[in-house]
Amino acid sequence: MTRFALTLEFDGTPFAGLQRQATAPTVQAAVEDAVFAVTGERVTLHAAGRTDAGVHALAMRAHVDVEKNIAPFRLMEAVNAHLRPDPIAVIACEVVPEDWHARFSCIGRAYEYRIANRRAPLTLEKDRAWQIGPTLDAEAMHRAAQALVGKHDFTTFRSVQCQAASPVKTLDRLDVRREGDRVIVEAAARSFLHHQVRSMVGCLALVGMGRWKPERMAEVLAARDRQQLGLNAPPHGLYFVRALYPGEG
After folding, report:
1. Which of 64, 96, 128 is the endpoint of a domain?
2. Does residue 126 fall inside a structural domain?
3. Which of 52, 65, 172, 175 is labelled catalytic?
4. 249, pLDDT greater than 70
5. What angle do CA 7, 105, 75 make, to 5 degrees?
6. Number of domain units in the chain
7. Domain span holding position 180
8. Quick check: 127 and 204 in contact, CB under 8 A?
9. Choosing a second label site near 128 at 20 to 30 A (CA), which of 51, 70, 106, 198?
10. What's the pLDDT score for residue 248?
11. Mean of the per-residue pLDDT values of the chain
């Protein structure tokens, strides 16, 4: 049995999320079916994160265990051939030790949220960014974001459907910057609660639009009350960008 680490890039638009579901298309099901088509083996795809419907990935790490003797490059090429026309690509494939686990060995995860800050309709970025017409104050958003960095009880920013044992998480970084008419929010932590990034971005957008003062962010965090959440950003602006493992820089 060989364990292969896969790096996946995907457009989440047509999927009901990454994790397999009985009645809807998912990234996990598509990759597992492609591996079966190549190897004749039913495998389970384990991933570093569980993205929601409509969320994208630039480099989602995952792994599968395969009995067939096959080179990593050949497996990658063959799986990609069988994934077409689904918008999923294996962009890297390597053999890893059998005790390496895409989810449980992961020590850091990073997300990026893209806001298209313009009034004109989106064409190339449709379903790949959250469009906000009014001009956002990215500097105010960044100042407000710093209140969330560190170890906190993130109950306010946690989905009621979250299955995590505790609402306490340590947010390593939450940065906001402007690139032309795009506002980018970058978040990094060991792990995140369900909807945490989208909830934080939604509230930061209220700051950017001038509806909230930057100081409000600290107040809603301290409230530990989901009812205090101002806005939950839509899924289509969110991208899983990196999973970090021991020994990786």
Report:
1. 96
2. yes
3. 52
4. no
5. 30
6. 2
7. 111-244
8. no
9. 106
10. 80
11. 96
Per residue in 60-96, pLDDT tens?
A: 999 999 999 999 999 999 999 999 999 999 999 999 9
Q: Are residues 52 and 155 in the same domain?
A: no
Instruction: Give CA–CA dist 79/51, Å, rounded.
Output: 21
150-153 and 238-244 strand pairing: unpaired
For residue 144, the Cα-to-chain-centroid distance in whole angstroms is 22
pTM, 2 dp: 0.95
CATH number at residue 41: 3.30.70.580
Domain assignment of residue 171, yes or no: yes
Rounded to an integer, what distance in angstroms lies between the CA atom of residue 60 and that of residue 186? 16
Residue 211 lies inside a defined structural domain of this protein: yes
Same domain as 80, residue 128: no
- Residue 68 and residue 125 in one domain: no
Cα distances from 4 to residues 63, 90, 102, 227, in angstroms, run 5, 12, 10, 43
Q: For this structure, is 52 an active site residue?
A: yes
Residues 10 and 90 in one domain: yes
Residue 249 resides in a domain? no
Query: Please, which residues have CB within 8 angstroms of residue 202's CB and are 6 or more apart in sequence?
Result: 229, 230, 231, 232, 233
Q: Are residues 85 and 119 in the same domain?
A: no
CA 235 → CA 52, 94, 169, distances in Å?
Answer: 7, 30, 21
12-50 burial: b if 16+ Cβ within 10 Å, else e? bebbbbbbbeeeeebbbbbbbbbbeebbeeebebbbbbe
- What is the per-residue pLDDT for 164? 86
Could you tell me the CATH number of the domain that includes residue 198? 3.30.70.660
pLDDT reported for residue 247:
81
Q: Single out the residue of 46, 11, 75 nearest to residue 240, CA to CA.
A: 11
CA–CA separation, 239 vs 151, rounded Å?
A: 23
